[in-house]
User: What shape does this take?
Amino acid sequence: MKRSTYVLLFIVICTSVVVLMIVGKGGDPGRTPASSHTNKAGQGLAPTTLHLLFPLEKPAAQDEVIQAVENKLAKDGLPIKLEFTYIPYDQYWNKLWLNAASGEPYDIALSAFSNIADLVSKKVLAPLDDALRDYGHAIVNSTPDYAFQGATINGHIYGIPRVMPIAEFQSFVQIRGDLRKKYGLPEIKTVADMDNYLETIHQNEPTITPYFYDTGRFLLREYGDVAFFAGGYLNAPVYIDPADPQLKVRDTYESDFFVHIMEKMHEWQKKGYIPYGPSDTSKYPDPELAFISGKVAATWSVVMKQTERIDAFKAMLPEGELENVYLHPEKPKYLYTGADNILSVFSTSQHVNESVAFLNWLRSSQENYDLFTYGIKDVNYKLKDEAIVYDGIAPEHQYNPISWTWNDIRFARFSTYISPAYSKELRDWDKEAIVSPTLGFVPDLAPIKSEIAQLNVIITEYLPILYDAKVDWNATMASFRAKLKDAGMNHVISEIQRQFDTYRASRKGEKP
Assistant: This one.
């Protein structure tokens, strides 16, 4: 995979995807007693146009859907209009900060657990505590405490997390179940099983690339299940192993799991399973299309990704099957964080209350959720046994927004291709999860923002190089580690350790 592709994929994988089974909390997320909540709905709100900044591109049929949304908002007493700006994903996170710094009049934007601490340290986001108290009744009542903890820095809430299955939600890879069955292969539960699958595709399907557009995060289930901080996955400079009795903050790039993942990715490159380099990857300018059209046999995934790509896949390969691979299901499944994708409000916004009131409206009923997420019934989609179908809906009216920024498992509708059994498995995903001692901890990066900025530059430069099987591993790693040390890695470790120890003590009611 070419280096620029890996840089983009790190952003996508580390900030994309999927969260948690709602447990219907009746009170505020640990900061205000439930009795102190007010529910002002649209009271005191002047007519407002909210400006939303999102990644990717404008979906088909958005104009007709948003007109219907605005009509419903007005009917419900919320004088709110909506305007959207879209930015290509590979530019989004940088422009998010630049837009905030320039004071451009945006209100709502996508943030993520992996970068919310950094955004708060740069004063990009507004605290939402007061607005949630006054205008966020439905949000507060439907969001578990631990989900809000993932958006809380120094006691203040800086975003509204989506609520979907979240325990180890990124530890997946998607394969072609029909190809696995075609060759009589067992379900993939170990790296050895994955080796067998990729080799079988390589030997028997010459027109199919075995594995493409993934950074190997699913391999953590084999080589070391850990919680990352100050970034996502291997972009994160530090981690904590929940099984470590000392719960020490450690250097990601000194770990055994980092070496093992790189060794396995190099092995698969050398065997011809994974293309790497511009000459090898240029034939797949759209990696998702390459997978759903049958040109690739394994690609990136998260816990809910199968529900999101199944319709497009079946449209191109009606007889094909998708399988989401989660290695070692017998091992503990950790709940590391309560949030992934988060909707936040810019610190420069003049409409914090209105922004929260709109998002509260979205989360207050199936009708509102369906309208904003799927569009107008029988115009943009149809229902069949409570599942979404597009039979008879022209492509220009099929509305597919980036709903992974605001999913709510209470209201989520799946494709008819998702079986009731699989739907139940997803809705119950977190029930047997083990709570990690890191749950709820989000480091304040303000004291180390200079070091984090320097580390991010170095990591972004070196990671794509280290993924290349042709790299001079020893020399490159020595240079990488030396630069990280010079940039303040040890200070970052000690500061995050100090904060984590303080957090643990506060949870126990002890002094650190």
User: Anything to note?
Assistant: Residues 2-8, 10-36 have pLDDT under 50 and may be disordered.
